[in-house]
Amino acid sequence: MIRVFLLDDHEVVRRGLADLLQAAGDIEVIGESGLAQEAARRIPALRPDVAILDARLPDGNGIDVCRDVRAVDSSIKGLILTSYEDDEALFAAIMAGAAGYVLKQIRGTDLVDAVRRVAAGQSLLDPAVTQRVLERIRSGVEQPRELQSLTEQERRILEYVAEGLTNREIAGKMFLAEKTVKNYVSSVLAKLGLERRTQAAVMATRLLGPRPGAPNA
């Protein structure tokens, strides 16, 4: 039996998914949750084969949950389920170690197939998209010396700061919790030896060039 955990903030969706999956005969739903923080605690304890994770949740998102769970147990496969097709979210899902990223418009039989494939160790991510992600990571090798201490995620946060975005706006673009973005910004400032985000924006503009949405001086 393939053991599955469901994370979605709508109970009716969880019930529908559970009925659909268990009707397949070879899949067992061993747990469910409507909150990101609760799921991040329960999933490693239950050790499902696959965790189906809603991308948007009241207290966070499934991508962060995927990252946190796989940091504890990398054998658990994360399948991100979302209503939105978003390149930034897909990039974040790949960076979080997700095995798949599917839209909620997916047919029931295709979702069952997706769970089976992910449980078997296959990836549902488009190879072309994965290649773009790898190229973005490799391009970081040639980044300015001052920015080499930043992770890929922190560098993207810095770029958004340079565009004048608030933590909430950055969170929306990157599928992260606002608190997570705040922590990233603090980390970026500490690594760059700065005290204020305006200083970080000035440094980013100097090193990376003017950002598309940056306010005029």
Integer average pLDDT: 84
Main β-sheet, spatial strand arrangement: 2-1-3-4-5
Radius of gyration: 19 Å
Structural class of the secondary elements? alpha/beta
Question: What is the CA-CA span between the terminal residues?
Answer: 60 Å
Per DSSP E runs of 2 or more residues, the count of β-strands stands at 5
How large a portion of the residues is in β-strands, by DSSP E? 5-15%
- Put simply, the count of helices is 10
User: What is the multimeric organization of the chains shown?
Assistant: single chain
Q: List SSEs in N-to-C order.
A: EHEHEHEHEHHHHHH
Q: What characteristic shape results from the CA principal axes?
A: elongated
**Helicity level:** 40-55%
Please outline the major beta sheet: 5 strands, parallel
Give the low-pLDDT segments. none
Name its key features.
alpha/beta, five-stranded parallel β-sheet, 217 residues
Describe this structure in words.
- By secondary structure, this protein is an alpha/beta fold.
- The chain has 10 helices and 5 strands.
- A 5-stranded parallel sheet has the order 2-1-3-4-5, sandwiched between helices.
Short synopsis of the structure:
This protein is of the alpha/beta class.
Summarize the topology.
Elements: E1 2-7, H1 11-22, E2 27-33, H2 36-46, E3 50-54, H3 62-72, E4 77-82, H4 87-95, E5 100-103, H5 108-119, H6 127-139, H7 152-162, H8 167-174, H9 178-192, H10 197-208
Parallel strand pairs: 1-2, 1-3, 3-4, 4-5
Helix pairs in contact: 2-3, 3-4, 7-9, 7-10, 8-9
